[in-house]
Amino acid sequence: MVAPFSSDALPSLPKPSLDPSINDIQERIDTQALIDATHSVVTSKQFAANVETIGTHLGDLWLSPYGDTVSPQQAVVMYLGLDPAFTGVPSTLVWGTTEQTGPRERATREATIELSRAKLRQWRSGSVLRKSCAINTLAHEISHAIPQSQNGYSYQFTDRGRPWATFWGRPLVSYTMGTVAQCTYLQSKKHRAAQTFASCVERWGTSHFNSAGCDDE
Ligand SMILES: [Zn+2]
Fold this sequence. Notes:
217 residues; two-stranded antiparallel sheet; four-stranded mixed β-sheet; 6 strands; 8 helices
């Protein structure tokens, strides 16, 4: 059982830490700015409200393409750690070659979030649209650091079988959180891509990420 949603509950989603191996000072500053912006978007009241609104269009969200579904509100409760049983494990962000999140080596309750350097370039660009794509990806990866229970760390939200989810048009929690974060960011910047919230969410996707549009401007 997941605790009921309350808009007064304070999020306890841990912020990813910077990997100590990032030596370049400018890179540390820029990475921290991406983490801060993403965390601030997803812990805003607007984000929770947007998930709820979009949920009325999407219906229940899938934990994974094979598994159970949860209501959009339950997904927010778990994602933001509004229920202590699902508080995200501490995570460390590293720059690499791909996007993936998993248990940190030799640590049972810690995660490593790897993002490709293409995401750093998006974030550093002057375009709000491109920056929003980096936020989508980080918000998505953060969902993989939410544990199934307080013991150990195994994924609550997964993407396995994503082609099936795409084929059947099933909204997955991980992609929905990423895309709602992206559109909430665009909305806060009064970007035209978020003028109609539902079409913004449809554009970037809830069963996979339509990243092809990220370089449109
Ligand atoms: Zn994923």
